């Protein structure tokens, strides 16, 4: 994939219209990403997947994450096992539920004193299930802004892939918030 991207980097439209490349992207988002979830916490696998994805433009990577989320994994939106086209969807859903539950339990305990220990635990959950974990964390940070410095400190234990997924989750969060938040006029405070 990296060699293909480097040889066709000058023309992104040609690359995205190539059926071979589209098939590769389909397998990345439909097979490789769910395999990361089912494979458990393994930062080495994250680094291998990142080696494949890092040369792609961010729009293409975000489309892979979006199709990963829509396919029933990663969304945390209550997709039911068996509702997607992937045979391992029940396993993916189960792993995501376990990771989200564990991340919620660890996030409750996050303080200034234990940020290193809890940060490592949160990183373990985000290694193999970054979409639901980061969606939850961003929702909590919107409510409890005083936790932002601790979460930023905890993110130093994450991998490049999980930080890229975090960027994707941030974009989704800002997009969702821009649709639901009423516009504030200049000089007006809104509590």
Plain-language structure description:
With 191 residues, the protein is mainly alpha-helical. The chain is 69% helix and 0% strand. It contains ten helices and no strands. Helix 6 (89-108) packs antiparallel against helix 7, helix 6 (89-108) runs parallel beside helix 8 (130-143) and helix 8 (130-143) crosses helix 10. It is globular, with a radius of gyration of 18 Å. 29% of the residues are buried.
Distance between the termini: 49 Å
Structural class by helix and strand composition = mainly alpha
Listing every helix as H and every strand as E from the N terminus to the C terminus, the arrangement reads HHHHHHHHHH
Q: How can the largest sheet be summarized?
A: none
Radius of gyration (Å): 18 Å
Which tags fit this structure?
mainly alpha; about 190 residues; globular
How would you sum up this structure in a few lines?
The chain is an all-alpha fold. It has helices at residues 2-7, 12-17, 19-38, 43-53, 58-70, 89-108, 115-128, 130-143, 148-154, 160-180.
Topology:
Elements lengths: L1 H6 L4 H6 L1 H20 L4 H11 L4 H13 L18 H20 L6 H14 L1 H14 L4 H7 L5 H21 L11
Helix pairs in contact: 3-5, 3-6, 6-7, 6-8, 7-8, 7-9, 8-10
């Amino acid at each position: 994939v990296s060699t293909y991207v480097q040889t066709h980097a000058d023309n992104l439209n040609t690359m995205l219209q190539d059926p071979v490349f589209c098939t590769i992207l389909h397998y990345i988002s439909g097979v490789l990403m769910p395999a990361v979830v089912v494979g458990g916490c393994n930062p080495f696998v994250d680094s291998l997947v990142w080696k494949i994805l890092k040369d792609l433009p961010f729009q293409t990577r975000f489309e892979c994450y979006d199709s990963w989320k829509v396919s029933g994994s990663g969304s945390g939106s209550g997709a039911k096992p068996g509702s997607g086209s992937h045979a391992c969807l029940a396993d993916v859903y189960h792993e995501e539920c376990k990771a989200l539950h564990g991340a919620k339990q660890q996030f409750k305990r996050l303080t200034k004193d234990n940020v290193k220990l809890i940060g490592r635990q949160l990183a373990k959950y985000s290694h193999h299930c970054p979409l639901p974990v980061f969606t939850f964390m961003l929702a909590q940070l919107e409510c409890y802004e005083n936790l932002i410095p601790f979460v930023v400190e905890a993110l130093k234990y994450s991998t490049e892939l999980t930080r890229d997924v975090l960027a994707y989750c941030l974009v989704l969060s800002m997009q969702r918030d821009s649709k639901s938040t009423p516009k504030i006029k200049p000089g007006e405070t809104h509590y």
